[in-house]
Design goal:
Helices cover 8% and strands 37% of the residues. The chain is mostly beta strands.
C-alpha cells in the first residue's frame, strides 16, 4: 500500500496528509506508533514506487464547524475546515464529502463524522479477548481489517504475531496481549486495536400465539418442530443473530 504525495486520509479519528519530508521527528504518525503503516502506507523511498521519502502530517482544525449544502440540494452536512500542508491535495470526492475551501490559504473542508457511523458500531465489535482468540474466534482491528493471529507466545513485550489483510495482501504485525500495537496501554481507542468480531449464528424456533417464542433455538427445523408445544403453536421459523 502506498499513499500518494498530497493524499488525505483518516487515522484513529484524525485527518492526515502524505507530504515529502525527511526523518521520523517531523512525522506526526511516527510519534504514535510505526504500526500505523497498514493504514498510512510505507514512508521509505526503498518501499515506494515513486522512490520518495514521505512523512504524514496531521491536519489542524481551522475555525468552527459550519453547515453546507454539499450535495447541491436541501440536505445540509456539517463541515470542518482543516489546514493543508500540500495544496494539491488528493482525495476521494464524496467519501466522506470534502472540498478545497480556500486554495490560496491551503484549506480543505471535510464532513464531520457522526459517531453512529463509526466502524466499531456498524460491525458491533467486542473488546479483545485473548482466550477467545486462542479458541479460534474471529478477530479484526477496530476499523474493520480482518486479521489472523499466527503466534501467541513470541518473545518480547509483544507476544502476538498477526497477519492483517490490507488491499488483498497480508501484513505481519506484532501486538501486546491486550491487543494493542503499542506498549503504553493507552486508554484512547486506536483504529489498529484488536477487537473480537461477532460470529453469525442461525437456528430454528417455534412461534406461538401472542408472538411468544421458544426460549432456546434448535439446529434444524425438524428438531424445533418436534419440540414444539401443540397448544397455541403457530409456526417454526429460522432466526439469525450475532454473538
Amino acid at each position: 500500500m502506498e499513499r500518494k504525495i498530497g493524499e488525505i486520509f483518516e487515522y484513529n479519528g484524525e485527518w492526515y496528509q502524505c507530504v515529502k519530508g525527511l526523518g521520523c521527528n517531523e512525522c506526526d504518525l511516527s510519534k504514535l506508533s510505526c504500526y500505523h503503516r497498514f493504514t498510512s502506507g510505507s514512508c521509505s523511498p526503498n518501499m515506494r514506487e515513486d522512490e520518495t521519502q514521505v512523512i504524514f502530517k496531521k491536519l489542524e482544525k481551522v475555525g468552527e464547524p459550519f453547515s453546507c449544502n454539499y450535495h447541491g440540494d436541501a440536505r445540509l452536512v456539517m463541515m470542518q475546515e482543516y489546514q493543508l500542508y500540500e495544496a494539491n491535495a488528493i482525495y476521494n470526492y464524496g467519501s466522506p464529502p470534502m472540498y478545497i475551501s480556500d486554495y490560496k490559504h491551503k484549506r480543505i473542508a471535510i464532513e464531520l463524522k457522526n459517531k453512529e457511523d463509526m466502524e466499531e458500531k456498524k460491525l458491533n465489535l467486542k473488546p479483545f479477548d485473548i482466550q477467545k482468540a486462542r479458541e479460534g474466534k474471529p478477530v479484526c482491528t477496530r476499523d474493520g481489517h480482518k486479521v489472523r493471529i499466527i503466534c501467541f507466545d513470541a518473545k518480547g513485550n509483544k507476544p502476538l504475531i498477526i497477519l492483517s489483510e490490507i488491499d488483498g495482501k497480508e501484513v505481519i504485525l506484532r501486538y501486546t496481549e491486550k491487543g494493542q500495537s503499542d506498549n503504553f496501554h493507552s486508554p484512547t481507542p486506536r483504529e489498529d486495536d484488536l477487537m473480537m468480531l461477532p460470529e453469525k449464528k442461525e437456528g430454528w424456533v417455534n412461534v406461538y400465539k401472542g408472538g411468544l417464542l421458544d426460549t432456546k433455538s434448535y439446529n434444524t427445523r425438524k428438531e424445533a418442530f418436534d419440540k414444539a408445544c401443540p397448544r397455541d403453536y403457530v409456526d417454526t421459523i429460522k432466526i439469525n443473530w450475532s454473538e
